[in-house]
Amino acid sequence: MPDILVVGEDHALLKTRAAVLGLTGATVRSCPSPELPEKLAHPVDLVVLCHTLAGHKADDAAELIRRFMPRAHILFVNNYSGRTVYKSRNFDDTCSSEPGKLLVAARTLLKTPA
């Protein structure tokens, strides 16, 4: 069973994203960004970075993840439907915050069936 870590600044959004991602069948944990370094001790298959980690904060988090979990996929969730607001070479993919699109992107990166 895959493991997913959701990282962001807004506790309500973290809870919502974790609930949606739970539909993939994965074990889902979430944490506010200040707790990310301690969470990196437990490898995961996918890290989902919420748009609340604006710009460079998301990129910095992705670099840290790559350093400690080079095999983990990184998905950045934009706040705007259908439009990529922020991209980084450290992200494997970006998607809108719509639940259906988030599920498709997560399943694609995890290579799990719909």
Task: Tell me about this structure.
There is one protein chain. This protein has helices at 11-21, 36-39, 56-68, 99-110, and strands at residues 3-8, 27-32, 46-49, 73-77, 93-95. By secondary structure, the chain is α/β, with parallel strands linked by helices. It has one domain: Response regulator (Rossmann fold, 3-Layer(aba) Sandwich). A 5-stranded parallel beta sheet has the order 2-1-3-4-5, with helices on both faces. Helix 3 links the parallel strand 3 and strand 4. The longest helix has 13 residues, at 56-68. It is globular and about 30 Å long.
Order of helices and strands: EHEHEHEEH
The SS-based structural class is: alpha/beta
Choose one word for the global shape.
globular
Q: Looking at CATH, which topology would you report?
A: Rossmann fold
Taking all residues together, what is the mean pLDDT? 90
Q: How many domains would you count in the coordinates?
A: 1
Query: Runs with pLDDT <50, length 5+?
Result: none
Strand order of the largest sheet: 2-1-3-4-5
**Helix content, binned percent:** 25-40%
Number of helices: 4
| CATH-assigned homologous superfamily | Response regulator
Number of extended strands: 5
- Proportion of β residues? 15-25%
User: What integer value in Å does the Rg equal?
Assistant: 12 Å
Top-tier CATH class: Alpha Beta
